[in-house]
């Protein structure tokens, strides 16, 4: 019977799907573009289902979102808007893909996309992907059978970013897999399903039958009908054939229908998986063939057809307008011109048949009203919109363009108001608004763009003419433009004008007016069309100001050009076929017409003469028609030209500063024999590349593809005196690639070059000065007149390099050479300057002259001169003025042979005269200018910067700023109201230095000079700032201050003020410079408000540092004050604060500026503060903290680190991690912005490359590679380790290196014996070790025996590769090497028997990690175990035989484990410590295994049940934990989620996402630990292991959901959801098997399908599985999957042979058996057996009493029992009386009662009011009255039931009470300051006056706590401190916060001492005074003179803050003492009047 049932389910599984087909666009489409989205369409002639989509996804892309739209993309022009409003929906979100960037990959688990017959679906794939830019010649339609893929078309292929895909055409790169949406097993499917002839009550269905099919059926019904409930039509082939007519339909109604065919003589079928749809029409047939013709500005003819029966027709149009007609055609009138219309027609068939459906729309556009000439359009009105790019433009509606302006096509006419970015179009509009423009670069050769005017009536013109302005410039080849005219409304067109090639020569050239005579169209109405041809490349056409008006009587000349010039003349040429006389006017560029030179000529071309050389001119031309009586034409022009250069003579100089960038310099030419494009060879003036003298230099660029004989050269102007042979060239040159050569030569024809010299460039990018003589001695031929600079192409293979030339000089060869200009320099003073030049003179003397800028040597503003001996290279220039600019020149006297040229100028500024201190500069005056960027800034002349502030191309320098920089690192605003000085770090390289130097400052008037300045430094990686002082005019500098790292923590943090004492510079004249170092990265420094003035009378210490730091000692140093008497130092752990009780520190004094402390802890970090004491009451503030860390002590091996202790912090991200103090990393672990570094981790990284888990249970060290660049290095350094105690040192560590089979960079381990001076490499690993992140760690050994006697440093070095692969290490051990090491791996309980026994088993496995094979016979091993649980067991396992090879694992077993009591057990395992024990840390495994032991029999309910009614019953049941052999697989079927009958979507053909398995067994049995396996072919496909607690239902069944995905559908009574958990989907007919195994792997049951034979590896034997399996699929009537020996006893089939199962009704048509009785199980009552089922109902009862129902099972565990007690009281027992509550508090209460004398037991249950005592509540069994109820809540109402049992039953009574809400405890507290010292005070607290308190908690702040009724706390400073006391009792808690006033500690730590500010001090007697107190106090202010006399006293009253002043200006100069007295003490300060 079981075999028969199984077959009924598989009739659905066996149905086969129609064969799959694929359509691919690859390789027709290729990968040449990409974005994040692409579209395509799929349409089909039969219903299909798309089940696969493959696409080119970028490498690393892991998910995609798929959008679909029914009906296709649904657009007529781009862009494609993918939104819900446009009908799009997200079909699948974040579907999984594995993009590789090189080939299409399939979307995983694609949800099928259904496409109905003759339907279409648009699809958009979203994600990082590639696509194809589709040319016009490529196919865009791909068809395979019934499906067509449309991709890459103008309206199907869009690319871009969702929601707006704006690029097209773009082609989808990939494939689709589809199958017809049919189910069944017929080989030949039917196709081409169509629905036609649809009328009001009938419709016709047609299809193409499948060849060989026998018959068909059609079932139809209202839309949504359930198959089987519709109307069915059948027929047999070949007698009956489609089409089939459906009749009796309802009017205007939606219908569905299904088609099926029968094959194989009725054995199989094929049918529609989803319905086909149609809708019937109305009774009144709609019109057809709707059309609009004869469309005019205000009317149109509308026509249609109709079958008859209509009385009238309503024509709907416009916004709700309509007109009624009785016949077709009909003229629709009253339309608006230039308007788009949609037309609909509805037929009216009278009262009986009503109106029809509408037909339409028929769309048309009424033309514009005809415009009358004269006509003008300049494209500037509001109907023309120019967006500035290719999209969002619009044109006047009366004009038209093709392609449409609104389309996404690039090549089209659009309006523009600005020049295009291509550089080809005009720079400006002709008429001040817009022009029409056609971009050529988006075209393909032969493309056409048309712009068509409206209709223009030219009949009013005598001779019509077309005028328009045009601009055509391409610098290459621009394609033709035609002008065409139509006089028949656009039916035919005549070409009246054609222009080819460029007209303008630059984008800035003026527009050109064109005229076309239209005499042939006199009297006509015309349209004009501008037709631009595409060439696929370049050159953009533009037109403007189109006019049709009278033709001129004197036509003007066209095509005016200046084809050639000389140095004094120019030839002018033009076109004018009808003219005979012309006027020319010319002048300099920009001249006003009427003021130029004019001539009349009859020659064309004509020559104008008398021009200047190398000069720009403009010329105008007009026709002179005076002789014919027609006057003059308009002037045409200006036409610009430039005359050629006349030959030059020496000296000639060109620094190219006035030449136009990106063009040849004026008068220069070039020789190029290869490379002609703009981006190929270039010889031109350049601004980039850092010219020697800004802004330009001359560049020569060698592109690729040259040969050694090619020439690439710049040619100088012609020199008429070059032939004299006594000239030379003097120039600067450099190259961008070392090894290039520059050739110097001459030429006379610009073709043939005579090379003279070769200049090699050994280095790159460094300008050097060169001299080349052009004389016969050097190879000059005496003929050539031009100089040539050529790139030596014969000497290089380098490409894409530049050679630059600057400051070119052509000059006489001097009698001797002067020094080079680069050797000139000066060291300025105030009135003198030391000037110098290159050493060594070629002459006998050197002359020097100096003066103000631009003086002429020997004349003008010459200030001084001197002559020195030729062997001297320096002199002093005198007579100078401070803060003034000068320059000097030098030349050599050439031993009576003349002089060298003057060389210079070298410009310098003299120093400013010293400024007298006090000095202040806030950078806000007019001499400081901040431009807001890196260029255009200036600083005060008396200050200097290096690099100079004027160097625009130097990013790393000091500049003024008034606003925060864009980097986000600098300050947000200035500190003084305008500017600050700022140094940008990001432009630096490591080691760069930027200087900012003050003027000279005379500090001799200051008693104690000091430097003050504000600074702002924000960035974790900012480099150092130093402050240096010079007192010898900059010859030497002394460092007085250094700051490392950031000061602020954000850009918005306030500025900090700095003070630097300068006592060693008393009496000097000094300069101060701020020196910022670059780090190549980040962090910007800013300073402001620089002052040099008197130091305070007691200056703050500065420059805090810690030197000579060891593990226990450090010396604190600082820059102290000359006036200090002694210094106080306070030090403690990091974070302590001096003067508070937060964390104690140590306070010490010293009379020097340093202090050595030798009581520190190793490897610890400390803060220290310093303040100076200059006299009584005269102290500085505490300065600090300065933070330092002591060195770690040297560790003595053995050494171990697993990174798991509290000193290692793993945040899980790149930031917030911490290393043990004795370890270090570089980059530092704290650098959050640095991704490539070693960090601790406790979990696997998200990259998927690192290990999934730690190897030691906590953390591991990890280095993330993806943030690195090639060459990056990450270091991890161990502390110093002394190996001398080891006999044979070795190091072990675990490592994990996985790159997912990609590239991981090397890791090495290095060792140093000399504290890191040198390192030896111990180990290097290349590439990955693991292949997956889940692969186990491996252990690496390194021999350290060579270093055994040393103290060593060891570090791990991971290289970066910029990509992937992450390294991890763990478990580092340094120890003496032993032969072996065993590691305990795992443990398990092996409990074979479900009975509670004392003889269970546990297992322990261990592995041989190291050394040779272990022989246990000679070296036995003891394994200890410790079992804890309800019963504890301790024991050992001895291994004294056998061997264990290296790397092998051994498992040992212990028996006699006592698990006889139910509960949770766990055991630990330990290996003994013997010789094979290198690593003692892997010998212990805590928590090796755990197990929950359950009683084999559990009767429910657990507690006593009360029965008080004669009709009550109780359900009792027993759960048994039996051996697994009683479980069977009894059903495997499919769930699809319909309401009734067949599942939704038809019966399944194979197991998919919603399958279930039914397993039967003993009712209530636990499936926990049972495994379900799925097999096919010879492979195990998947497993499910059921968790504990998966209990069978009372009828002995469990429904287990399986399948690959978690679907929403599920049976209401399913037990375990295993979907997506190790399950698979099998196709139709797949032979498969299923196995149940118990927890020990023993086979319980096995079933098979389709004659499946289990492989030997499955372990299935005859005792597991027998019977005859079905031979194939498809037979109806069976539900089980295969044959099984249990089927006949467990299942009965009551269904027919064709009955299918309803998946929503489990076990439908199956009679379930009565739950099986269990042999040996009984329920007994009073010793009598009452039932053998595990779940029964007992009652009702007629007699009161206590009923003990005993569940007994006598089986494999022997006799076991459990009892359910039911107490029945039907009036026979006396209930308890006198129930009373007492001692009711907030949390407990007492209940008392009186029981009857016959009471046997008492029970008390209590819970919140309303609870059911039969099912819940706290239970007290047989308590004594009174009983205490505990665990209560305050203010809560409770019910208490007391029940007494007697011989005849039980009876109960209830009482209700409410717990107390109070009283809460009260607080009464006092405190006393019991002892006080100079540094602390002890305060005692007393709360004995509090009442009702259970606990006391004291909070003293800062984390300090106390308990008890009394507490003490020590304070380290005076002040008012809050204290909070919290008291609690059962009713709740109360807290009270009060202030404690501490007095008498040294006043300097008080708020007054800390906040007191006196300024200025010294002063003229007026002092500003401010301070803040912690609370209001009476304050008295006094001033004492040096004799101690009070000269001023002022009582300020009770205040908490003071801001005021005191006036002592009437007192003598000198020192005074200011006293401020409060109730907490007195503060003294010294003030000075001067």
Walk me through this protein's architecture.
This protein is an all-beta fold and 2034 residues long. It is built from four helices and 149 strands. The strands form 34 sheets. Strands 2, 4, 6, 9, 10, 11 and 14 form a seven-stranded antiparallel sheet that branches. Strands 32, 34, 37, 38, 40, 41 and 43 form a seven-stranded mixed sheet that branches. A hairpin with a 6-residue loop joins strand 145 (1957-1959) and strand 146 (1966-1984). The longest helix has 12 residues, at 2-13. The radius of gyration is 51 Å and the shape is globular. The N and C termini lie far apart (121 Å).
**How many DSSP H or I helices?**
4
Mean pLDDT: 83
Oligomeric form: single chain
Strand content: over 45%
Helicity, in percent? under 10%
Based on CA inertia axes, which overall geometry fits? globular
Major sheet size, sense and barrel closure = 7 strands, antiparallel
Distance between the termini: 121 Å
At a glance:
The protein is mainly β and 2034 residues long. It contains four helices and 149 strands. The N and C termini lie far apart (121 Å).
Write the layout of secondary structure elements.
Layout: H1 2-13, E1 21-24, E2 33-44, E3 48-56, E4 63-70, E5 80-81, E6 89-96, E7 104-106, E8 113-115, E9 119-133, E10 141-144, E11 147-150, E12 159-161, E13 164-167, E14 170-172, E15 174-180, E16 182-184, E17 191-196, E18 203-208, E19 215-222, E20 231-236, E21 244-246, E22 254-263, E23 268-272, E24 276-279, E25 288-293, E26 300-305, E27 312-317, E28 321-325, E29 330-332, E30 340-348, H2 350-353, E31 359-365, E32 371-372, E33 375-377, E34 400-402, E35 413-416, E36 435-438, E37 448-452, E38 456-457, E39 464-473, E40 481-486, E41 494-499, E42 512-517, E43 525-533, E44 540-550, E45 558-565, E46 570-575, E47 582-588, E48 597-601, E49 606-608, E50 616-623, E51 636-642, E52 652-654, E53 669-672, E54 682-686, E55 697-702, E56 712-715, E57 727-735, E58 741-747, E59 754-760, E60 768-774, E61 786-791, E62 801-812, E63 825-828, E64 833-836, E65 845-851, E66 862-869, E67 874-877, E68 885-893, E69 903-909, E70 915-916, E71 919-921, E72 944-946, E73 958-961, E74 980-983, E75 993-997, E76 1001-1002, E77 1009-1018, E78 1025-1030, ...
Parallel strand pairs: 32-38, 70-76, 91-97, 114-130, 120-121
Antiparallel strand pairs: 1-15, 2-9, 2-11, 3-7, 3-8, 3-15, 4-6, 4-9, 5-13, 9-14, 10-11, 12-13, 16-23, 17-18, 18-21, 19-20, 19-22, 22-23, 22-24, 25-26, 26-29, 27-28, 27-30, 30-31, 33-44, 34-37, 35-36, 36-44, 37-43, 38-43, 39-42, 39-44, 40-41, 40-43, 45-46, 46-49, 47-48, 47-50, 50-51, 52-62, ...
